[in-house]
Amino acid sequence: MSIKYILFWAILLRFLVMPFFFHPDLKDHHQRVNYLFSQGILNIYEFLRKDSYTKEHNLDFSYPPLTYFTLGFYQYLISPILGKDFQKWTRDYSDYRYDTIFIFRYLFSLKIIYLIFEMLTGLLIYKLLSNSGKRKLALSLWFFNPVNLYVISAIGQFDIIPTFLSVLSYFLWIKKKTFISGLSLGTAIAFKTYPLLFLPFYLLTKSDLKNKIIFLLTTLGIYAVTILPFINSKEFQNDVLFSGLSTRIFQLKISILNHQFSVFIILYLLLIATYWFLRSKIPLYIFFAITLALIFSTIRFHPQWIIWLIPFLALAYGESRINLKFIGFFIISYFIYFIFFGDSFLMTGLLSPMSTLYLEIPPFIKIVPDNYQNLMGMFTRSLFAVVSLTVVIKLLRGKTPA
């Protein structure tokens, strides 16, 4: 199977999905970033807390400034395609938001940027596996797994941007382009802070001290530059730095000698120590993957977060460090988790642009008797946690038989 063949079918499949699936987050993100050029708002966090309309609808923006400016600039670039009614649509919370004849144009246009970053991530995976006989299979895994189609093409989440930048940072690091690698990781953190968890592993590699210092200063410097203009804003602090999204990984705790400790932090520190001893045997990216798998096994997370992990699983598959059976179990348990999540817009509600009747289908958790719904939620979360930990163990064990 040629690369052109893989890319053709990957793009065609996304063209068939992107215009017809709608999640409110896509519209909400662009309702917020619309203020950048429509009103010239730079500090979106303070504006949303003070403007009468946004206060009335309790609107906020819980992402770093670079996300706001990037999506705002992209919206400005495609504004001739979106048309004059787009701003009105983003502010409409009635059923008209589904019935407008322009919705397919909106959805397709707004998701193109994510398609571009998804393709670029695939290119990096292919280049990273230049010595692997499974590089085309790994590329196919990246493009044709249902998680990508669900998160990027159907829901339309910007998490693919920091995902690409994280993979790019790793690619540049192994090419010994330390400064640019740091720029990439710092920019990834400026979109979403989770890649900050990769930093200790970079600093514990066997690279020389000078390169590590350059990498550290570049990474943190880029991140600092993007947030410093907002750092004294209480709204920014509350909505971004110390929001529930940022602190969620610390919520699951265990009591030791009458003191509460974060389960994730304990596991994360153990993982860092493990890397110190195994860094000559196991590639750096494996520990990125394990870090993310530990997050998913210890917290209640959003569906789009899973895309952070998928490129590293594709790399691990390409290097025969995990087989399709384990990846398949991981993906299946992921969808079981969100099928019973209780949000119709994660399943049938995504089809609302084709018919609002899909909104009347209750979440699948409703088929479970009320007395057992919490139990079902605990079961699906526990199942995914167990599968995630199984993936962790598999990745640590090393290469699988061919």
TrEMBL record:
Pfam families given in the database record: GT87
Chief location: membrane
InterPro entries associated with the record: GT87
Top-rank lineage group of the source organism: Bacteria
UniProt GO molecular function: hexosyltransferase activity
Ranges annotated as spanning the membrane: 6-22, 65-83, 103-126, 147-173, 179-201, 213-232, 252-275, 282-299, 378-396
GO CC, alphabetical: plasma membrane
Cell location: Cell membrane
Topology within the bilayer: Multi-pass membrane protein
Keywords of the record: Cell membrane, Membrane, Transferase, Transmembrane, Transmembrane helix
Family: Belongs to the glycosyltransferase 87 family.
Entry protein name: Glycosyltransferase RgtA/B/C/D-like domain-containing protein
Organism this protein belongs to: Candidatus Daviesbacteria bacterium RIFCSPLOWO2_02_FULL_38_15
